[in-house]
Amino acid sequence: MESDPKGKPHDEELERYLEWRDRYQQRHRKETRTRVLQFLVATVILLGPFVAWRLQDSGELQFIGRETRIVHAVVDRTTWTRHGGGYFLRVYYQFEYEGQTYEGKFISDRLTGMFHEGECVIVKIAIHDPEKNALQPELQCP
Fold it and tell me: pLDDT tens, 1-15?
């Protein structure tokens, strides 16, 4: 590298260095954005099916993009049913919304507990389509 008498690099070399640095920084930013995007895509691909399964299993998938409301329902009847590897209690309930009566059902398990006819349960409904409803086992009637 040639220098002037005071030891400073020529303007031409400094200019080449600055151009290289700018190209390097642009390339580095682009690569960083690509890596972040790849990470996000991989995360969605890996976790997406689990989240969808969990939403479906909890009954929440039917409420995505819908306005909902929590209502009280009354257990109408119960029956024992074979489900999977054993017998479970199938619980039928009714609720009223805007003057109309709607029905729903669910299978009781260890998490939801036992239910009896006439018992109050909490149900989430889609307000524009109350036929779409699901028990909210974590909520208790007052």
Answer: 455 555 565 788 999
Residue extents of the structural domains in the chain:
9-58, 65-135
Residues 78-84: contacts with CB within 8 Å, 24+ apart? 78/108, 78/115, 78/116, 78/117, 81/107, 83/107
The single-letter DSSP state of residue 64 is T
Amino acid letter at 68?
T
- Global pTM reads 0.60
- Annotate 110-133 with b (16+ C-beta within 10 A) or e (fewer): eebeebeeeeebbbbbbeeebebb
Name residue 95's beta-bridge partners. 102
Q: Which of 105, 132, 101, 97 is nearest to 121 (CA)?
A: 105
For the segment 72-82, what is each residue's pLDDT rounded down to a tens digit?
999 999 999 88
